[in-house]
C-alpha cells in the first residue's frame, strides 16, 4: 500500500496546487522517529492515516506549461487614489462663481502607528533615562524579606516541566496549535518588487488678469414679438415655394433638382461658415509656408550688387491640382482687380491626347487648393479676364467653342457658349481677348482660330425671357496664305486659308491689331478695314506662338516662335529690330508691366529668359532653368501687374511663381540736378533710344547725292536693325551697330 501512494504523490505536475492536511508535512517524520525511540507501536492504521496526508489535486486545477510557470508577471502600483473625487468645486471670489478644482489630494491613509522611539540625545530621552535610574535604585534598596515569596512551589515547577516537556514533544496537541505553519512554496514564480521615488516638490502658479467688461442686457419677449417671428418664418417658406414653382419647365429634371438643392442650402449660416473656413484655411496655409511668404514680401537678393548687370529668380509657391496632373497648362491670366488671383487653363496640345479640360483659379494666399474649379468637356486652350468686370472670363476650347464663365453665378456651366448654330469655330480656338463695350453697352470679345476666322462675339441677354443668353458673332476678317482675304464661296477662285494662332490688340489705337499665323507670318489688320491686310511681316519660319504689343511704346511689339527665336518689331518697319536665338522652341513671351525694355520668354528646355534691352541688347540678363530638363516643358509665362513676380506653367499641370531680383526690375536713375519725369513718358523715351540709330552711321549710309543705293546686308550676332528709306527714294538699308559689310 505505501508504494502506490508515494508514486501517485510524485506524479503530480509541478503547477498543481495540493491541498494538505494541516501539519501533515511538518510532523510526519519527527513523530515517527520519536515513536521508534520510545518503542511505541504505530499499529495497522498507519497506512490509512498516511494516505490521508497525500497531495490532493482539485478537479478545476489550472494546468500551466513550463514557459508559463517561468513567466514573471509584473504588477505596477501607482500613487493615484481611485476613490479620490474629481468634481470638487470651490467658490472663486474673482469670478463670483463656483469653479472646479483640478488639484485633488491623492494620498490615502491605511494605517497609522504612533511610535515610542526617542532620540538618545533629546531632552525627553534624558528625562526618561533619569526616571529609569531612580526606579532601579529604589528596587535595589528594598529588604530581602520579600525574596522568599518569589520562588515557585515544586508542584508548579513540576507542572512547568511537564508543560515544557509537552512543548518539546512534537506530536502533542499544544505543539500542533502553537507551531506556525510553513510558508507555501511559490507555484507561479511570483516575484514582488517595490520601489520608492522622490516626489517632486509642488509649486503653485497663479496669474491675475483684469476681468472683461460686463454689460447688462435685458429684454421682454411678449406674445406679439413671438407672433411676428412666426410670421416672418412663414413668409420665408412661402417665398422658397414660389421660387421652386417658378423654375422653367424647359429645363431637364436633373438641372431643376440641382437648383432646388442650391436654394435649400443657401442660408446665412452656411455662407458664414464657408467664409470663416476659407479664412481659416488661408491662415493655416500661410503658417505652413511662412518662409515663402516672408521671402515674397521682404527678401531681396543682395548678391545682385556684385553681379555684372545680371539677375536671378527666386522660386516661391508651386500650384498644382491633383485632378489635373495629366493636363498641360495652356493659358495663364492675372486678375486686374484682385492682383493675387490668376486663372489657369488646362488642356493638351497633343492632337492624339484630346479629352477633358479644366479651368481653375488660384490665389497667392492659398497655394494648396484652387479657389474656383470648372471642369470642361473639351480642353481649354486660351482665356482672358475682363479688366473692368473681373468676374467675367472668356474661354476658348479645342473643339472650336468659345464660352463665358461668371464667377458670381453658382454652378459649373458657362453663362454663354457658342454652338454650331451660332457660328462656332470649326478648328481649335488659340486666343481670346476682351474689347470695349459696344454702343449698346454689350460686352464683347474677339477670338482667333485655325479655321482662319477672326470673330467678334457680343454678349446679348434678352430680358423678355427667363433664361435667354445669346452669343452673337460677327466675322471681322478671314486669313489667307497669299495675303488676299477670302470673299466667300461665290468667288471664282477660293484662296487657301491661313491658320491663325495668336493675336493682340493695340493698347492705344482701338481698331489696330496683329495676327500671327501657322505659316510664320504676322498680319497687321484693322477692325474697320477688313478687305485686306494693312501690312504683312515675314516673321518666322515656323508657327508664331505669341505676338504682343508693348505696354508703353505705341510702335513696338514682340513675337516668338517654335523656330527658337524671339523678335522685336517696329510696326512701321518691315524687318525686325532685334532677333534673339534661345536655342530651344519658345513657348511664350510677355512684356513687363513696369518697364518698356524688359520682357521674359520660356522655352521647351525648362528655362526662363529675362531680357532688359536698356542694359544688354545682345543676350538675356537672366537665364535660369526652373524645372527638370528633358522631362518638363514650359508653355506660358505672365508678369504680375503689381508685384515683382512672374508665373510659369508647364506641360504637367504645375504653375510655379518666381520673384525677380532687383537687377531684373531696375528703373532709370536721375542725374544730379535733374528730376526724372514720371509716368509712361519715361518708358517711351527708353525705347526711343533703342529705335534711333547713331547719327554718324545714318550720315554715312544716306549721302546727299545718292538716288539709289545697292542693298547692303550685314549680320552681327543675333541683333539686326533697319533704317527706313530716305526722302529721295533710296532703297532699304540693313545696317549693324558697329560695322557693315558690302
SSE layout:
Elements: H1 2-10, H2 24-38, H3 46-51, H4 66-70, E1 89-92, E2 97-100, H5 123-140, H6 154-168, H7 173-178, H8 223-245, H9 253-265, H10 268-288, H11 290-298, E3 313-319, E4 328-334, E5 341-347, E6 357-363, E7 372-376, E8 380-385, E9 392-397, E10 402-406, E11 416-417, E12 429-435, E13 444-449, E14 453-461, E15 469-478, E16 500-505, E17 512-517, E18 521-526, E19 535-538, E20 544-549, E21 556-561, E22 565-570, E23 578-581, E24 586-591, E25 598-603, E26 607-612, E27 622-625, E28 634-639, E29 645-650, E30 655-660, H12 680-691, H13 695-701, E31 721-723, E32 733-735
Antiparallel strand pairs: 1-2, 3-30, 4-5, 5-6, 6-7, 8-9, 9-10, 10-11, 12-13, 13-14, 14-15, 16-17, 17-18, 18-19, 20-21, 21-22, 22-23, 24-25, 25-26, 26-27, 28-29, 29-30, 31-32
Description:
The protein is of the alpha+beta class and 742 residues long. The protein has 13 helices and 32 strands. The strands form nine sheets. The chain has a four-stranded antiparallel beta sheet, covered by helices on one side. Strands 4-5-6-7 form a four-stranded antiparallel beta sheet, with no helix packed on it. A hairpin with a 4-residue loop joins strand 1 (89-92) and strand 2. It is elongated, with a radius of gyration of 51 Å. Residues 1-35, 145-168, 172-177, 486-492 and 694-742 have low confidence and may be disordered.
Amino acid at each position: 500500500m505505501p508504494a502506490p501512494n508515494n508514486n501517485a504523490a510524485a506524479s503530480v505536475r509541478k503547477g498543481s496546487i495540493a491541498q494538505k492536511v494541516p501539519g501533515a508535512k511538518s510532523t510526519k517524520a519527527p513523530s515517527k522517529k520519536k515513536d521508534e525511540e520510545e518503542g511505541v507501536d504505530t499499529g495497522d492504521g498507519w497506512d490509512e492515516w498516511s494516505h490521508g496526508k497525500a497531495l490532493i489535486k482539485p478537479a478545476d486545477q489550472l494546468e500551466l506549461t513550463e514557459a508559463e510557470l517561468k513567466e514573471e508577471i509584473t504588477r505596477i502600483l501607482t500613487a493615484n487614489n481611485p476613490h479620490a473625487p474629481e468634481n470638487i468645486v470651490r467658490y472663486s471670489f474673482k469670478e463670483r462663481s463656483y469653479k472646479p478644482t483640478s488639484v485633488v489630494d491623492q494620498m490615502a491613509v491605511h494605517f497609522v502607528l504612533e511610535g515610542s522611539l526617542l532620540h538618545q540625545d533629546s531632552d525627553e530621552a534624558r528625562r526618561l533615562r533619569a526616571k529609569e535610574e531612580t526606579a532601579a535604585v529604589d528596587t535595589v534598596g528594598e529588604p530581602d524579606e520579600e525574596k522568599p515569596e518569589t520562588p515557585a512551589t515544586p508542584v508548579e515547577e513540576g507542572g512547568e516541566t511537564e508543560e515544557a516537556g509537552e512543548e518539546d514533544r512534537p506530536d502533542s496537541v499544544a505543539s500542533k496549535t502553537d507551531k506556525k505553519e510553513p510558508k507555501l512554496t511559490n507555484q507561479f514564480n511570483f516575484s514582488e518588487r517595490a520601489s520608492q521615488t522622490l516626489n517632486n516638490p509642488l509649486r503653485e502658479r497663479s496669474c491675475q488678469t483684469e476681468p472683461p467688461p460686463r454689460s447688462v442686457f435685458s429684454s421682454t419677449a411678449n406674445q406679439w414679438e413671438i407672433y411676428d417671428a412666426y410670421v416672418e418664418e412663414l413668409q420665408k417658406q412661402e417665398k422658397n415655394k414660389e421660387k421652386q414653382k417658378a423654375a422653367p419647365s424647359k429645363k431637364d429634371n436633373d438641372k431643376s433638382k440641382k437648383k432646388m438643392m442650391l436654394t435649400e442650402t443657401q442660408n446665412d449660416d452656411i455662407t458664414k461658415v464657408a467664409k470663416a473656413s476659407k479664412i481659416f484655411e488661408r491662415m493655416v496655409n500661410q503658417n505652413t509656408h511662412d518662409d515663402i511668404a516672408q521671402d515674397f514680401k521682404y527678401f531681396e537678393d543682395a548678391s545682385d550688387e556684385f553681379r555684372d548687370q545680371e539677375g536671378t529668380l527666386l522660386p516661391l509657391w508651386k500650384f498644382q491640382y491633383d485632378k489635373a496632373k495629366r493636363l498641360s497648362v495652356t493659358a495663364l491670366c492675372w486678375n486686374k482687380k484682385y492682383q493675387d488671383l490668376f486663372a489657369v487653363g488646362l488642356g493638351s496640345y497633343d492632337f492624339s491626347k484630346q479629352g477633358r479640360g479644366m479651368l481653375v483659379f488660384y490665389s497667392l494666399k492659398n497655394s494648396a487648393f484652387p479657389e474656383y474649379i470648372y471642369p470642361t468637356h473639351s480642353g481649354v486652350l486660351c482665356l482672358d479676364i475682363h479688366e473692368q468686370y473681373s468676374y467675367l472670363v472668356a474661354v476658348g476650347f479645342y473643339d472650336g467653342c468659345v464660352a463665358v464663365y461668371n464667377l458670381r453665378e453658382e454652378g459649373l456651366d458657362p453663362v454663354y457658349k457658342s454652338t454650331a448654330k451660332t457660328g462656332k469655330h470649326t478648328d481649335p480656338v488659340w486666343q481670346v481677348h476682351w474689347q470695349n463695350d459696344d454702343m449698346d453697352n454689350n460686352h464683347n470679345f474677339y477670338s482667333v482660330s485655325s479655321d482662319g476666322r477672326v470673330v467678334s462675339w457680343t454678349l446679348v441677354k434678352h430680358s423678355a425671357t427667363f433664361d435667354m443668353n445669346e452669343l452673337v458673332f460677327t466675322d471681322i476678317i478671314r486669313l489667307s496664305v497669299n495675303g488676299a482675304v477670302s470673299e466667300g464661296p461665290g468667288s471664282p477662285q477660293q484662296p487657301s486659308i491661313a491658320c491663325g494662332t495668336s493675336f493682340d490688340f493695340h493698347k492705344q489705337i482701338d481698331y489696330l491689331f496683329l495676327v500671327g499665323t501657322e505659316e510664320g507670318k504676322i498680319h497687321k489688320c484693322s477692325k474697320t478695314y477688313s478687305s485686306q491686310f494693312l501690312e504683312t511681316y515675314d516673321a518666322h519660319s515656323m508657327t508664331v506662338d505669341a505676338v504682343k504689343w508693348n505696354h508703353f511704346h505705341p510702335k513696338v511689339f514682340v513675337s516668338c516662335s517654335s523656330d527658337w527665336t524671339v523678335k522685336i518689331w517696329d510696326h512701321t518697319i518691315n524687318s525686325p529690330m532685334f532677333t534673339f536665338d534661345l536655342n530651344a522652341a519658345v513657348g511664350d513671351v510677355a512684356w513687363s508691366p513696369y518697364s518698356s525694355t524688359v520682357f521674359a520668354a520660356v522655352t521647351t528646355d525648362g528655362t526662363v529668359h529675362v531680357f532688359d534691352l536698356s542694359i544688354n541688347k545682345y543676350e538675356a540678363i537672366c537665364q535660369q532653368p526652373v524645372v527638370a530638363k528633358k522631362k518638363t516643358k514650359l508653355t506660358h509665362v505672365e508678369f504680375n501687374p503689381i508685384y515683382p513676380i512672374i508665373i510659369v506653367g508647364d506641360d504637367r499641370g504645375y504653375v510655379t511663381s518666381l520673384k525677380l531680383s532687383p537687377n531684373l526690375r531696375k528703373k532709370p536713375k536721375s542725374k544730379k540736378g535733374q528730376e526724372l519725369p514720371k509716368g509712361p513718358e519715361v518708358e517711351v523715351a527708353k525705347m526711343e533710344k533703342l529705335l534711333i540709330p547713331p547719327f554718324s552711321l545714318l550720315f554715312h549710309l544716306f549721302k546727299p547725292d545718292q538716288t539709289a543705293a545697292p542693298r547692303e546686308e550685314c549680320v552681327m550676332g543675333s541683333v539686326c536693325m533697319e533704317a527706313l528709306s530716305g526722302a529721295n527714294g533710296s532703297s532699304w538699308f540693313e545696317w549693324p551697330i558697329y560695322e557693315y559689310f558690302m
